């Protein structure tokens, strides 16, 4: 499967897109992302493609959120 690179006009647009993907994973797996990442890091879940993508999306979400928080603090 070939991945497509997606470019967003702002970190907020990227955060919204990643949040939507996380919501899809959470609904499909009946588990929130925080619980997932905890179990995944402990080796309690397989390294199948879905879980790897979910983990990557969650890490991206955290980085984007941190970036936006810094921007908001600087603007305040």
In terms of per-residue confidence, which ranges show pLDDT below 50 for 5 or more consecutive residues? none
Major sheet description:
none
Using DSSP, what is the number of strands?
0
Instruction: Report the span from N to C terminus.
Output: 44 Å
Q: What multimeric state do the chains show?
A: single chain
- Structural domain tally: 1
**What is the average of the pLDDT values?**
94
Instruction: Bin the strand percentage.
Output: under 5%
Using the alpha-carbon principal axes, give the shape.
Answer: globular
- Listing every helix as H and every strand as E from the N terminus to the C terminus, the arrangement reads HHH
Query: How would you classify the helix and strand content by structural class?
Result: mainly alpha
> Cα-atom Rg, whole angstroms?
14 Å
Helix content: over 70%
Helix run count? 3
What does this structure look like?
This protein is an all-alpha fold and 76 residues long. The chain has one domain. It is built from 3 helices and no strands. It has helices at residues 11-29, 33-41, 49-75. Helix 2 (33-41) crosses helix 3. The protein starts with 10 loop residues before the first helix and ends with a helix.
